[in-house]
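TASK: fixed-backbone design
INPUT:
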């Protein structure tokens, strides 16, 4: 639908980006970090270890993005992209999708509410990101069927990450605080470095208001779902 309605996609993508930013920040601070601190305390780890993993994620993703390997967070339809090869696009998407699968599976194995909120954050981020990728692939002259095929192939990495995490969770369980803290850092970096800056380029008051509202809805919806499920 998004491929067929390109004009609609361009009009709404930054609103989706704003919503995604709100969801990702709320999940990081309301769910992932508190859960990481609690698990770390249960196994005797100091809180600075959790924060160090969060910082490591932010630094790591910054280095990836600066080296043009993890460049696919450029969401805006009007933003000039670097000119990487299609192979690099696929590599970035596939690596990220694999990590998404790990994060979603690990979160559900810890608790259903955490898994749901984490999945919401991942989905909110993936929708505008995939719209941007569609636009990039099409601009390279790739036909729509091939774009869809490449997207499906890349997305299968999510299933691989989830299944691997499920079967090897016993070996990974001791890394629960680190995984949650790292995921929080990933969400904070994506929202703060890639999503929110794109919104500051909008100077039309009506559009800016809509984006701000979408951001607050993302935050509020995440908190509401957490409270509603827990209670």
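OUTPUT:
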């Amino acid at each position: 639908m998004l491929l067929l309605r390109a004009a609609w996609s361009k009009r709404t993508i930054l609103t989706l980006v704003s919503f995604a930013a709100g969801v990702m920040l709320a999940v990081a601070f309301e769910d992932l970090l508190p859960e990481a601190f609690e698990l770390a305390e249960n196994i005797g780890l100091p809180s600075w270890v959790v924060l160090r993993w969060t910082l490591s994620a932010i630094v790591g993703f910054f280095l990836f993005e600066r080296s043009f390997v993890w460049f696919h967070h450029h969401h805006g339809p009007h933003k000039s992209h670097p000119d990487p090869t299609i192979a690099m696009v696929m590599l970035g998407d596939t690596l990220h999708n694999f990590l998404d699968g790990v994060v979603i599976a690990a979160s559900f194995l810890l608790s259903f509410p955490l898994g749901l909120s984490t999945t919401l954050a991942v989905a909110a981020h993936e929708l505008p990101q995939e719209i941007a990728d569609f636009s990039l692939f099409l601009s390279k002259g790739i036909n729509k069927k091939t774009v869809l095929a490449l997207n499906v192939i890349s997305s299968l990495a999510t299933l691989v990450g989830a299944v691997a995490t499920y079967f090897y969770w016993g070996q990974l369980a001791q890394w629960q605080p680190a995984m949650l803290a790292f995921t929080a850092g990933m969400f904070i970096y994506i929202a703060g470095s890639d999503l929110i800056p794109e919104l500051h380029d909008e100077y039309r008051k009506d559009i800016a208001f809509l984006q701000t509202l979408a951001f607050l809805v993302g935050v509020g919806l995440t908190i509401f779902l957490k409270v509603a499920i827990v209670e």
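COMMENT: The CA atoms of residues 95 and 131 lie 18 Å apart.
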